[in-house]
Specification:
This protein has 110 residues and is an alpha/beta fold. The protein contains 3 helices and 4 strands. Helix 1 crosses helix 2 and helix 2 packs parallel to helix 3.
Amino acid sequence: MKNLYVTGYKPQELNIFNSKDKRIPFIKEALKRRIIQLVEEEGIEWIIVSGQQGVELWAAEVTLELKEDYMLKLAVVPPFLHQEKKWKEESQEYYYFIAEQADFYKPLTN
């Protein structure tokens, strides 16, 4: 089994403060191209994220989209239970959307 752990910048580190920011689709497209390349060339089977806002959740969303065409699975392994509780409601809903569709979800600690 070949795994890829994805981590990266949070939105505020990229000066992105709105989920409708016009740069997000470009970031997702770059992630998509790189994931496809790694799947096709390296045989990546699992994409693993901790579920942090920004690059990690965008990569998770891209992975869910790519599951239709590639044999990919998504694992969300947050560092602790309820990491999203202090986030804005919109961010929490996005996190739940991703976590519910993941093939594996388990916090490291309670």
